[in-house]
Amino acid sequence: MAAKDDLAVLFDEICRNMKKNSIAVDSLKRISYGIQFKMNINGSPENMRIYQNGKGIIKYDYSQIKRKEYLPMVREIIEESNEPGSFTGKMRGNIQSNFDKFADAGNNSAHINSSGELRIAGSGLNQRERNSGRGEYDLGYPVIGTDESGKGDYFGPLVTAGVLVDEISALQLKFLGVKDSKEMNDSDIKLISGKIREVCKGRYAVTEVMPEKYNELYSRFRAKNENLNDLLACCHAEVIEDILSGNICRKALVDKFADDRVILDKLRGKGKEIEIVQLNRAEQNIAVAAASILARSVFVEGMERLSEEYSIMLPKGASPAVIAAGKKFVFRYGKSDLKKVAKVHFKTTGQIVS
Predict the structure, then answer these.
(1) Where does a divalent metal cation bind (predicted)?
(2) Residue 180 assigned as binding residue
């Protein structure tokens, strides 16, 4: 397990233990050779730093804690936050027996140095920890996640987003409450999308295809005997390419909609090489979940702009309310303008104009 991954696992466990003791943890950020985060202890904000060097040695820096009376409690919580396979910190007697048990398993060697720091070498435990905690949706880090919004909505744009996530930003996103956008309401999506942009600044991309342009592109693809999946592949490839223009990443996870080859062909045509993995319900991965929120946020904003521009509340989805709104639109603006607000190749168009 890489050094950053060790810190990510450790920080995750620290947060769990802090929560058990009614201590809020936030403001996680990178620092040289480690991480810094803030603890809110009885209303007092206290900073904590954890460092890890390339040899796997982890050090806890308590010097930023202003209220020294909190030190014993913080030390106890943090130094109990040791995960099998990534044990760190000063080991107390009641933890030592667990350490011995795990250190003897697999191809690991371990020792506590004169400063009380624990060092683990070898890959046996780390590999098992990695495998036991990861399902098919966990590709490791860094990884780009992409998702789209508006594909099944008659009105509004088609929006595709991509987010590059590493170990630290994954934890930040998790504690922001990032999850599949379909499990969130629009107001929460708007709020969290702004925070995602802050956490992943310079490592995300969004493409918005408004209805008029969408209909034009769809017609072009159909003329080449291509379909909606090819159009979607171009959108996913575009956001991946945008992210790769300023970042290095070798893996991308996409919510499955077509054969991997479709997206790869679009990227290779632009000289981009990356492993594409497509899975159903890929939003279970934090990078795809973040992308789904960004995409949905921009889609909702696009729907609001169109509704305001034409003074008609355009519903999401493809329901009887959508048909009623479409008939109202056609009555006011005519059939020819329907392409400006809707994806006219949907069967819904026939129900509206009949």
Answers:
(1) 147-148, 255
(2) no
